[in-house]
Amino acid sequence: MHPGKTTGLGATLSAPITTGRMRPPASLSPVDPSAHGYVTEEHFASGTASAFEAVGTLEPDGRWSVTPGKSAPFCTRIVVRRPSQADRFNGTVLVEWFNVSGGLEAEPDWTFLSPEIVRGGYAHVGVSAQAFGVNGGTALVRVPGREPSAGLATSQPARYGPLHHPGDPFSFDMLSQIGRALRHPEHHFALGDLRPQRILAIGESQSAFFLTTYVNAVQPVALVFDGFLVHSRGAGAASLTGTPIAGEGVPRPVHIRDDTSVPVFVFETETDLGPRLDYVLARQPDTDRIRTWEVAGTAHADSYTIGGMTDLLGCDHPINEGPQHFVVQAALVALDRWVTDGTPPPTAAPLRLAQADP
After folding, report:
1. What is the pTM (predicted TM-score) of this model?
2. Which has the least CB within 10 A, 123, 148, 185, 350?
3. CA dist list (Å): 175 to 47, 50, 141, 189, 218
4. How far is the CA of 187 from the CAs of 15, 89, 184, 227, in angstroms?
5. CB distance 263 to 227 below 8 Å
6. Alpha helices, DSSP H only, in the chain?
């Protein structure tokens, strides 16, 4: 299934980076990809990206119209994990928007999904989509005792000195250009001998806020991705100016646009429904292109993702051990099947709440 015709080659992808030492995104994944016949490589992706400006008011229904605004050059990194043998590849590339909320680049969806990724033969491409990962700065979620991040470009200049990020307003188009490059035959070297049939965008938490905006505003004009896994979004969405939450001009709540041309799977944990994310305000009916699962007994960040970092986060309460990772892996398989052959995921009744504002 191809979402439509795209133009151009997208970003320019470099050969695998070998200078210096790779700084991997933070992950507590139990999977060593090399033990499952996977190759891990890092590439630079460069080009000129556009920011987007809203045409009219951004309405809660998510049917947003945008036009390209300012443009700026960029050079960011992608981390590619792929089966070394083409006959192990299932045809689907997962493009994850790295999460930067906690003061460092992290890949929570690789953490949650990696057992299924290597079992099913997916390729995974993580993207340093936001400026924080490249340039550093102050995190959205302040972790006690953690200083502002220096970012890739300044922390390891021997390897990452060429990187430059013009700012989060350009992140949306950067993601499009990277997705487009992975699809184009001229850049298939980044995937070895693999030939992608489907490219899905995935992201969790702050990244899901950005993907919500991407689905509503950018995908209708970019037509790059075949489907989306929007994991643990809240009631709102990122602004086109790059503010991740409560940005100017962004309504709250906002729905996923109901005229999306590609499948969108929204996955919500129980704690995503109430304060602070308040996803309950953005609930919407399932359609033939939108499916939502709300999973009882699960938490936005659980023991599977936090592991031994509990003390570093200043948390002195027990950490939820609900098996979110099993259910979100099932969601990935269901989304991939939905995109591949049109079989929609099972429906799931929303959780019943004793009160709307606990």
Report:
1. 0.94
2. 185
3. 11, 11, 23, 18, 10
4. 10, 17, 6, 21
5. yes
6. 108-120, 131-135, 151-155, 157-160, 171-183, 206-213, 219-222, 303-306, 324-341
**328-351: b or e for each residue (b if 16 or more CB lie within 10 Å)?**
bbebbebbbebbbeeebbeeeeee
Residues in Cβ contact with 291 at an 8 Å cutoff, skipping those fewer than 6 apart: 263, 264, 265, 266, 334, 338, 344, 345, 347
Closest CA to 235 of 263, 214, 266, 259: 266
DSSP sequence for 125-168: EEE--SHHHHH-B--SSPPTTPPPB-HHHHHSHHHHTT-B---G
* 81-136 residue pLDDT tens: 999 999 999 999 999 999 998 778 999 999 999 999 999 999 999 999 999 999 98
